[in-house]
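Proteins fold reproducibly. Take a tokenised chain:

. . .
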Amino acid sequence: ARGNPLACAPHPARRHSCNMSNQREGGIEVVQDEAEIEMWKIRKLVKGLESARGNGTSMISLVIPPKGQINLTNKMLTDEAGTASNIKSRVNRQSVLDAIGSAQTRLKRYNQIPPNGLLIYCGTVLTDEGKEKKLNIDFEPFKPINTSLYMCDNKFHTECLSELLQSDSKYGFVVMDGHGCLFGTLAGNHREVIHKVSVDLPKKHGRGGQSALRFARLRLEKRQNYVRKIAELTTAHFITHDRPNVNGLVMAGSADFKNQLMQSDLFDMRLTPIILMIVDVSYGGENGFSQAIELSADTLGNVKFVKEKKLIGKFFDEIAQDSGKYCFGVKETLMCLEMGAVETLIIWENMEVNRHVLSNATTGETHIVHLTPEQEKDQKNFKDHDTGAELESIESGSMLEWLGDEKKNF
């Protein structure tokens, strides 16, 4: 979440009810939080790779889809090494050959391509001081990648990683009118019609031959049967394993049927909380589906924003009420985490705080400190406050990454 750099809302009565995420609904939100953390790691990696630059064309970007073959990729790299040996510039030629060799070494770590594919970035990059530094990265993305790429350039190509970061939230649509109903889903830019139902309902006026009361009763009965059928189909399409299978639901239609459906006792109550909006459209069927997507575009785009806003709002409500069920700041929040008193943890994703494990060689004691880049420049923070002895750094790294890896232990 984007908000206070580090803040939490402790709840002493629910000390172990939540490990840095809310575990309601059998783990739905935990799974979503895991995905958010993976996406944050990819965003950070993309930012670092995009800013990296090298001399010549010594930076290799290799993307292998899930069904790729190790031996074919290795043969392709061997052929590329043969081509690179013809580069006239000695420095550039050696850099390219070293990068290809590093990529082959990384590739040897795998017996087969992982289920989600494989990404390898190798090359010599220039640091801020103008020095050369070798960078070799290989990893499996958090979801399948369907792109195949080999590029030798003066920069790393991260377009495929950026595509992974695009929201894949899935939204359901129910477009209902007096002529039929359409069930559809929208995920990113992909729309899909799941099911169509057509119906022939009687008009308000008949051709005679029966009493007005009888005609009205039959008409009402058919409309109720229609609403019942649509309610059952809505549950069948958007409920899986006793929980909604979409992130939100949009009810659309040109008549009052959509409102009757929602107000009906037959409508599944598990879907009510995820209804995002009700839209009036001029058409039914696929044309109505397209119009409903256009009219709900702003709402769907703001779903994550609204969720984060509610989260921050809850935190500030606790502060306004002075309930004592909140804290902020790195030291105080970590103390509450260790106590198991945190229900919700809010972290600013661009917070620059590093975690250092320092050891005193004389006493053998270890200390954990959290420092900003400015504080790291002050050597006093790496000395014992009592004796003035220098402390040895055993472990250091981003506190955000440490929290992401250790969240399950709190």
